[in-house]
Specification:
Chain A: One of its GO terms (biological process) is response to nutrient. The complex is a heterodimer. By secondary structure, chain A is of the alpha/beta class. Chain A has 12 helices and 14 strands. In chain A, the strands form 3 sheets. Chain A has a 7-stranded mixed sheet, sandwiched between helices. Classes of the chains: A alpha/beta, B alpha/beta.
């Protein structure tokens, strides 16, 4: 099995899909000759041609709206938004059109578009290259929201997304694009949508995280181990539909929960998790449900590491949870 | 670019190139415009009686709708907006299907999910649209792109009004279509008013058609109340797109004789003299005069068809009104291809809760 970074693994998934399914096309800004600003699509245009790996004009509503038209007609487009911070010109197309096409046509028209976008901070990208807007998409019926945290998952989840019949918002933690390598199965490797992964098993407290916050949470769990605490880290992988069973089973086992995301706190995805746990697992809880998140501020340039949850902040939350 | 393509003058006399249309098709085209007009009258009346919730007429715009629909092949794809139900009808959707959609009953193809007039019918390649203005144009562009990638000779028609020419999606669609030279025709029914805002409040361009020049493809301005001119302009654009010649923007200059919809009162914002002026240019009257002068249509034909079409609508209304609302579980289907567990749970809950209180009142726009 080859060892790959997340960038390589995503590229591999796209290559497999382009090779095996003639309906797959890739479109976006600079995805062709330049191979994308993060080089995710490097070499794909040379291999599959400029028709199937297309550089578009610079308009996100055109990219996503065009992809919708392609999907309606029977193709499987992968639309790349260069940074998720630039997705808002396409927000209307995603929320009003893409998400609702199947429902509003009563199943006459499906819209299997995969919208890929790097998200999150930690690369000194400043306000408009660092944000985590996943909650907006989770709030929209009809969308599937996927965020991988490892190279193998990134490949397997992307291929599963492309095999599905529905639109998927596929957010890639750019901070993890090149930080680690791992063995990634060759060919049509699949990781199922809507299935969480236990990143680290434990019994005293559950940490719920996704994307770039998974390795940070695992690091925090390692630190906590020195204090004799056994921390379970669940990598959600898919936010909608959520793997409710895995989340609740872990919470019922440990009785304590810390939720970690780098998006702002208020109405972030953690709020949904906390409400779910309160509704369905309250009697298992031994401590308040805690959140470690980005602040309710715009994303900073110089102070980004103060903004982003780190292992230290997570350990402080674990201390608090364990004090009950 | 203010020139206007015309085939007929206001009295129906040929003044420009007349496209070749078989005589039987001419009669069908006239009957179809009449069908649209009568359906609109009856449906607006049903709305006033509270039997349907909302309606937007195409009255005055029948030639633009019918002529462009006629010029397309049945295999071409249509991305409609509010006033193009007539395209679906031309392509074979039944009046009964339309009325069921207007009521939103269990016989509705869309099972009551959309407001009236937001119709789509996959059988005739008309795509589902939202109330957000202009958004369908990028879909038309993308589908045309896909058709070319698939090596099909499908042409996509994206309809818009004058208001949508201001939208970001119009710009993106036209720009992409120009860059990639896609087989798409943008058909603008410039009916002079976007609810209460007149054309000059929408653009400082000398026309809508002229905008095409900036995107690198032809724009044409045609008398939208002249059926033959619309057929001619649409044919030329569609044939060019099919032959690989790229997109066209057609501006069909017409007029919205009624309100934007059943929810507004146009006397609040536009002068009655303008409406009277456009009454003289009525597309049905004009084409009728042309066909009558050519000896291809009689008053008896019109009388007979009027009766026949009114009967057709009456039967459809009676059948549609006999059908109940869609079942509550239909709310939860089609959000996703396969229903996820959280929706299954919400569906079970909703069924247990029943339909709840009946909501009184009307859509407030």
């Amino acid at each position: 099995m080859p060892s790959m970074t997340m960038v390589q693994a995503i590229q591999d998934a796209l290559r497999v899909a382009l090779r095996e399914d003639p309906r797959v096309v890739v479109l976006g800004e600079d995805v062709g000759k330049n191979g994308g600003v993060f080089r995710v699509t490097e070499g794909l245009q040379a291999e599959f041609g400029a028709e199937r790996v297309a550089d578009t004009p610079l308009a996100e509503n055109g990219i996503v709206g065009g992809a919708i038209g392609m999907a309606l007609y029977g193709l499987k487009p992968v639309a790349e938004i260069q940074f998720v911070d630039f997705i808002y010109p396409a927000f209307d197309q995603i929320v009003s059109e893409l998400a609702k096409m199947r429902w509003r046509s009563a199943g006459q028209y499906g819209c299997p578009v995969v919208v890929r976008a790097p998200y999150g901070g930690g690369i000194k990208g400043g306000l408009y290259h660092s944000q985590s807007p996943e909650a907006y998409f989770c709030h929209t019926a009809g969308l599937t929201v996927v965020i991988p945290s490892t190279p193998a998952d990134a490949k397997g989840l992307l291929l599963s997304a492309l095999e599905g019949e529905d639109p998927v918002i596929f957010l890639e933690p750019k901070r993890l694009y090149r930080t680690t390598k791992e063995e990634v199965p060759e060919g049509r490797h699949r990781v199922p949508i809507a299935r969480a992964r236990t990143a680290r098993a434990g019994t005293h407290c559950t940490v719920l995280a996704y994307g770039a916050m998974v390795p940070v949470s695992v690091e925090a769990a390692g630190t906590a181990e020195a204090r004799g605490w056994s921390i379970e880290v669940i990598d959600l992988r898919t936010l909608v539909p959520l793997d409710v069973e895995t989340v609740l089973a872990s919470v019922r086992k440990t009785g304590r929960v810390v939720i970690v995301h780098e998006a702002p706190r208020t109405c972030g995805y953690g709020a949904e998790l906390a409400a779910l746990i309160a509704e369905q697992a309250l009697t298992s809880l031994q401590a308040p449900v805690l959140r470690v998140t980005g602040y309710d501020t715009p994303f900073p340039y110089t102070l980004e590491h103060a903004y982003l949850p780190d292992a230290g902040r997570i350990v402080r939350a674990l201390e608090h949870a364990m004090s009950y | 670019m203010r020139s206007l393509l015309q085939s007929l003058d206001l009295e129906g006399r040929p003044v420009g190139p007349v496209p070749e249309i078989p005589a039987e098709d001419e009669r069908r085209l006239f009957r179809h415009m009449l069908r649209m007009r009568l359906l609109d009258q009856r449906m607006l009346s049903l709305q006033r009686q509270g039997r349907i919730g909302f309606y937007g007429t195409a009255t005055g715009e029948e030639a633009a709708v019918t002529g462009s629909a006629y010029a397309a092949r049945p295999t071409d794809w249509v991305f409609p907006a509010l006033r193009q139900m007539g395209v679906s009808l031309w392509r074979g959707t039944s009046i009964r299907d339309i009325v069921c959609q207007l009521i939103g009953n269990r016989g509705d193809v869309l099972i009551g999910r959309q407001m009236p007039c937001h119709f789509s019918d996959r059988n005739v390649h008309t795509v589902a649209w939202s109330s957000v203005i202009g958004t369908q144009l990028v879909h038309a562009m993308g589908a045309a792109w896909a058709a070319r990638l698939s090596r099909h000779d499908t042409v996509c028609l994206g309809y818009l009004g004058d208001g949508a020419s201001s939208s970001a999606d119009f710009h993106a669609a036209a720009n992409f279509a120009g860059v990639f030279q896609l087989p798409v025709v943008f058909f603008c029914q410039n009916n002079q008013w976007a609810i209460s805002v007149p054309l000059e409040g929408q653009t400082a361009s000398e026309s809508i058609a002229v905008k095409a020049m900036a995107y690198g493809f032809p724009g044409v301005r045609v008398d939208g109340n002249d059926l033959l001119a619309v057929v001619g302009a649409s044919r030329e654009a569609i044939d060019r797109a099919r032959a690989g010649g790229g997109p066209t923007l057609i501006e069909a200059v017409t007029f919205r004789m009624g309100g934007h919809s059943s929810s507004d009162d146009p006397t609040r914002y536009r002068p009655q003299e303008q409406v009277a002026e456009w009454e003289r240019r009525d597309p049905i009257t004009r084409f009728r005069a042309y066909l009558t002068a050519a000896g291809r249509l009689t008053d008896q034909d019109v009388e007979h068809w009027t009766q026949e079409l009114n009967d057709e609508v009456s039967v459809a209304v009676a059948e549609a009104e006999a059908l109940g609302p869609p079942p509550i579980e239909s709310l939860f289907a089609d959000v996703y291809h396969t229903m996820p567990r959280h929706l299954e749970e919400q569906m079970r809950y909703a069924i247990a809760m029943g339909e709840g209180a009946k909501v009184e009142g009307a859509f407030p726009l």
